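Subject: for your reference before the review

Hello V.,

The reviewers asked for a structural picture of the protein, and I figured it would be easier to keep everything in one thread rather than splitting it across files. Below is the amino acid sequence we used in the manuscript, unchanged from the supplementary table.
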Amino acid sequence: MGLQESNKNITLVGFGALPVAGDVIGVSDYVLINPKVATGAINAIGTGALANSRGYVDGNNIIAEFDIKAPLRSPVSLGTAPELAKLLKMAGLAEVLTVGTSAVYKLGGVTSGNGQVKGFVDGFSRTVTGAVCNIKIAGKVGEPVTVTASVKGGLATAVSTAEANPVTTLNTGVAIMMSKNDTITINGVVVNCSDFELDLAATIERSYTTGTNEYYISNFKPTLTVTAIKTKTTDEAAWTDLMSGGTKVISLVLDSAGNQLAIDAAAAFCSDISESDDKGRISMKRVFTLENGGTANNNFTLTLK
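And here is what came back from the structure prediction:
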C-alpha cells in the first residue's frame, strides 16, 4: 500500500446541504480535518496507589477546528455568487445578488450551524456538519486579497472514509488585487494604506446535548484594522479623533470595476492607534470597531462589483 499524499487535497464547502464536486474551492494552503475525540480520566482512590486513574471516551463527542484560506475571486459573472459565497454565509453573512451588477454581503444571515465541509486527502474523506466559521479578509498592496475562515463543526466519526477524490473544476473568477491605484478613505480623507484586515470577530458557541451537536454564532464584534504610511499634519488628526470619540465613515475600493471589492463602514469607532518604523518612515495602524450606527446589521458591507 502506498503512502498518503497531502497534495491530493480537495475541499468542498456546502451550506444547508452536503457539498458536491461543484462546491470545490481553490484554497491557498492544505486543509486537513483533524478530529478531536472527547476523552477524560476518572481517579480511582481507595487503594493507596498513586497515578491510579482510568481513561474514558465519549465516541459521540467528536469535533474539528481548522482554517480554510483562499484568495478572494470575483464572480464569474457580475451579480452572481462568488466562489467563497457559502463560506461567507457560513460566517453569518446575508447575501443579496443583483444580476449583472453586484453581490453584497453583510451581517444578518443564518447564525446556526448550517455549514458542511467535506475534505478529501488522497482517496479518503472526512465530513464536518453543523459548522460555522469566523471570517477574516485581509489585503496587502501588491498581493491578492485573502479570506481566512476559521471553521468549527462536528463529525459522526473520527475515522476517515475510503472514497475516491472527486473530479473537480476550479472557479475561473479572477483574484481581486490590492494595488497602489486603489482608494482607501477615512471620513473622506485618502490614506496611504499598506494593508488592512477586516475581522468579523464572531463569538462561536456550541450546543452538545442529547440529539444535538451544533455550533452557532452568538455575537459579532467586527473590527477593521487599517495600516498606512503617516502623512505629516494630516494624519496627526487621528490622535485628536481618538481622544474625542465619535465615529468615522471608512471606504476601501480595491481593484478595478468588474473585478472589484468595496468595503464600506458607516460608523467606525477608533479604539486604538499605534505608530512604528517602516523602513525609515512612520507607519500608523488604526483599529476601528465597526458599529451599526443604530441600524441593525449596518456595521459594514462587502460589495463585489
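For the response letter, the relevant points are probably these. Residues 35 and 104 are 34 Å apart (CA to CA). DSSP finds two helices and 21 strands in the chain.

Happy to draft the paragraph if you're swamped.

O.
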